[in-house]
Design a protein that fits this description.
The structure is a single chain. By secondary structure, the protein is of the alpha/beta class. The protein has four domains: 12-59; 65-126, Trypsin Inhibitor V, Chain A; 133-195, 2-Layer Sandwich (Trypsin Inhibitor V, Chain A); 203-282, Trypsin Inhibitor V, Chain A (2-Layer Sandwich). It has helices at residues 3-10, 14-27, 30-59, 75-83, 144-153, 214-223; strands at 65-66, 88-93, 105-109, 115-116, 121-126, 133-135, 157-163, 174-178, 184-186, 190-195, 203-205, 227-231, 254-258, 265-267, 271-277. A three-stranded mixed β-sheet has the order 2-5-3, with helices on one face. The protein has a three-stranded mixed β-sheet with strand order 7-10-8, covered by helices on one side. The longest helix is centred in the first third of the chain and has 30 residues, at 30-59. It starts with a helix and ends in a 20-residue tail after the last strand. Keywords: Membrane, Transmembrane, Transmembrane helix.
Length: 297
């Protein structure tokens, strides 16, 4: 140690001077360096053991299997094929699709033909949900095109679309539907439609429906190729009459008067307004001459 270094060491506080002397002694100790070298060799050996032996054995490095394509197959068959490849299966329930058989695989992850490690989990989405129920809207009076769009937007299928045998004053508009408005149908169900081709070419005579129940009055008008618009005088006005019947209890309502006088001649398909009441004593006696023997069309 030089004279200057020794002079500086003498000026250090006693604890620091003692620590410096211990460190100098440690650096001159051959056992310290031997132990440090041994620990280093042990760490390097452990690293190569884990990297070259244990990890490849655990991860099966370089080994892979191909995921089979099981889409559109039944879940049980798909499960067998996947497990035969030393893979695991996880079932997931997807949104119900009425166009696909139940318990059919509609999606898989990883995708088909992917290379994965043995034991990897494959997620299978199965068509097993419940079909939601849709309330059928009232399509009467709207165009055929709009009716088809509404049916499709609800997840329903359009069935037969045919001209109605009973004429109507509004061509290419819906006059009938099946199921009826307000009914329920599962998604994917079919809705049949009938549309108007316009008024008929024949001239018919308006019958007298006063005093009859709404149900019988309708049948009587249909027998003459005429359409009924049922109104309640307490809530509806003839000037803004709806294009479709509005009553829901035709067997308990009676026709008080009608918009077209009996014996008036009109074209087939003309709409006849029926003003109704719940009071059977407030209606005239039915015309005994007008027979009602025709069944509903």
């Amino acid at each position: 140690m030089s004279l200057a270094t020794a002079s500086q060491a003498m000026r250090l506080p006693p604890p620091l001077r003692a620590l410096l002397n211990w460190f100098r002694t440690l650096l001159r100790n051959t056992y310290f360096w031997g132990g440090l070298g041994g620990l280093l060799l042990l760490g390097v050996g452990a690293y190569f053991l884990v990297d070259a032996v244990l990890m490849p054995t655990y991860t099966r490095h370089g080994v892979s299997v191909q995921v089979p394509n099981v889409e559109s197959q039944s879940f049980l068959e798909a499960k067998k094929r996947i497990e035969a490849r030393d893979l695991q299966v996880k079932r997931e329930v997807g949104r119900f699709n009425p166009n696909v058989p139940r318990e059919t695989v509609v999606d898989q992850n990883p995708p088909p033909n992917s290379g994965v490690k043995p034991g990897r989990r494959v997620y299978l989405t199965v068509n097993a949900g419940e079909a939601p129920v849709v309330n059928i809207p009232d399509l009467n009076g709207i165009s055929v095109r709009e009716a088809k769009n509404r049916v499709s937007s609800l997840g329903l299928a359009v069935g037969t679309v045919e001209p109605d045998s009973l004429p109507s004053p509004y061509p290419n508009t819906i006059t009938r539907q099946r199921p009826e408005p307000g009914d329920s149908l599962k998604t994917g169900g079919t809705v049949d439609l009938w549309y108007s081709t316009g008024l008929g070419t024949d001239t018919v005579q308006v019958p007298n429906t006063a005093g009859r129940t709404v149900e019988r009055a309708r049948r009587l008008l249909r027998a003459r190729q005429l359409r009924a618009i049922v109104l309640d005088p307490r809530t509806a006005d003839p000037s803004d009459a709806p294009s479709q019947p509005s009553d829901t209890s035709s067997s308990r309502r009676f026709v008080q008067r009608q918009g077209r006088a009996p014996t008036t001649k009109v074209r087939a398909g003309t709409e006849i307004r029926l003003f109704t009441t719940d009071d059977s004593t407030a209606v005239p006696k039915p015309d005994s001459i007008a027979q009602d023997t025709t069944a509903p069309s």
